[in-house]
Design brief:
The protein has strands at 2-5, 8-15, 23-28, 39-42, 48-49, 55-56, 88-91, 119-122, 127-129, 134-136, 168-174, 196-201, 206-208, 213-215, 232-238, 260-265, 269-272, 277-280. It is mostly beta strands. The protein folds into four domains: 2-60, no CATH class; 74-161, Laminin, CATH 2.10.25; 164-224, Laminin, CATH 2.10.25.10; 232-283, Laminin (Ribbon), CATH 2.10.25.10. It has a two-stranded antiparallel sheet. The radius of gyration is 25 Å and the shape is globular.
Length: 288
């Protein structure tokens, strides 16, 4: 690892399923680094942060855990030892996204190629019934008319059952106009009061339609098509001192070189600060 001044980001061992695969990043904001004098420890170039908070080469990201000690004489649990239930098998490297009966009601999601801790998982061609916790044939899954059951699986103390993915939660009355990677820079100003039942992104996260995951705005897929209002277009690195109605007659001569990501006015248009729209210079309203 190496120390970097916050804000700083580091690549992780979790990759998107785009072509080519892109590593998702873990970012540290300035406020997160107050206790460490404004610095964060991030992986060096070419290294990736794994689930044990260690920096490893890419080919070591998904390696199975190695045992340094010889196993005890007791046998590993198998389906014949009684440790696993019916239609389950013991796995030292369990699949991170075990199939379950709710899969047919949810959109496909990319799954990280990470080993979960050793334990029991469903046999091939079987899925987990979340209501009973048992492994059954898909044809034996309970039929439901709603995408989410009204009852939840029994959880441990201080836990709640969540059918949604990372960085999202279930909401019985979510918005009909969610913020996505596509409309992040052109968010809907008017929306119906209709309740939408389902998974919604946690605060600060938005939906990436290409992966159907909730991500930070900085982590949207690279080939995302961003929507902009009329007379505007998207730029990844625009000026931090745009020409506006108030300064178009005397534009700033000095400007810092900081890149601003977002929608900017098309050529021949300037920003009207009152309406926040891009207009012809002749349409600028006079301020009194």
């Amino acid at each position: 690892m190496e120390r970097k001044k916050c804000p700083a980001c580091t690549d992780t061992c979790i990759f998107t399923k785009s072509l080519p695969p892109i590593p998702l990043q873990k970012c540290y904001k300035t406020k997160d680094c107050k206790k460490t004098s404004g610095y964060a420890c991030v992986c060096k170039k070419g290294y990736f942060l794994n689930d044990k908070n260690k920096c490893v080469k890419k080919d070591k990201c998904y390696s199975k855990p190695k045992t340094t000690k010889k196993p005890k004489t007791t046998k590993q649990p198998t389906t014949t030892t009684g440790k696993c239930q019916k239609n389950e098998i013991w796995k030292n490297c369990r699949y991170a996204c075990e199939p379950n009966c709710m899969d047919e009601y949810k959109k496909p999601r990319p799954c990280p190629k990470l080993c979960k801790e050793a334990g029991c998982e469903c046999k091939p061609n079987y899925v987990r019934n979340d209501k009973t916790g048992q492994c059954v044939k898909p044809s034996d899954c309970p039929k439901t008319t709603t995408p989410f059951p009204t009852t939840t699986r029994k959880c441990k103390k201080n836990e709640v059952w969540n059918y949604c993915g990372s960085n999202e939660h279930f909401d019985k009355c979510g918005t009909a106009c969610p913020i996505t990677c596509n409309n992040y820079y052109n968010q809907p100003k008017v929306c119906t009061k209709q309740c939408v039942i389902g998974c919604v992104c946690n605060e600060g996260y938005i939906r990436d339609k290409q992966t159907n995951e909730c991500v930070l705005p900085l982590h949207c897929s690279r080939n995302t098509t961003y929507e902009c209002p009329k007379n505007e277009h998207f730029e990844k690195c625009s000026t931090d001192c745009p020409i506006t109605c108030s300064n178009h007659k005397n534009p700033p001569k000095v400007c810092n070189r900081m890149c601003r990501v977002g929608c900017v006015c098309d050529r021949g248009y300037v920003r009207d600060e009152i309406s926040d729209k891009c207009v012809k210079r002749s349409k600028c309203r006079t301020r009194h």
